[in-house]
Specification:
The chain is built from 6 helices and no strands. The C terminus is likely disordered.
Length: 158
């Protein structure tokens, strides 16, 4: 993964933002790596026993991505299947986070905090657009496609 640092826009900022959000840092996307992101990165680096430079290089990427997702495919590993009607707030929240940063779903309002009809409709639409059977079931292929879409769209960043 390339370096990401203060005051720079970077296509990998979405991965950085998601990784930090998954670890409890309350960041909101602005399009740039700003001071609040740098503070979160430095804190994460300190907690991970990495030199707290604020520059996201190989050691920070490895620590940030370890056990959650790979650099090339956000979210594929260790993601549970999501079935219509699911009320697992953590998993449904991750699904919502991915979808709501991808065009044409950005800024959608009224999306349930459970895997209800509106969110299912968004997933089915996404699956059709991604060439996946539009079942509404979120499995490895859908997670992989969501990860790729988030990684390449630049729809949001730090």
């Amino acid at each position: 993964m390339p370096q990401v640092q203060l005051q720079r826009q970077h296509r990998n900022s979405a991965r950085l933002w998601l990784g930090l959000r998954q670890r409890g840092y309350g960041l909101v996307g602005t399009g740039n790596y700003q001071r609040n992101t740098e503070a979160a990165v430095r804190d994460f680096q300190r907690r991970s026993r990495i030199n707290p430079s604020g520059i996201v290089g190989p050691k920070t990427w490895n620590a940030l991505l370890a056990g959650t997702y790979t650099a090339s495919d956000i979210g594929v590993r260790h993601r549970p299947q999501v079935l219509p009607g699911s009320r697992d707030k953590r998993v449904v929240g991750q699904l919502r986070t991915y979808l709501l940063v991808i065009s044409p779903y950005q800024g959608a309002s009224g999306v349930e905090d459970w895997y209800g009809p509106r969110l299912q409709g968004m997933v089915r639409d996404f699956q059709r657009r991604a060439g996946i059977k539009a079942s509404g079931i979120v499995g490895p292929r859908t997670w992989a496609a969501l990860g790729r879409a988030v990684a390449v769209t630049g729809a949001f960043s730090c």
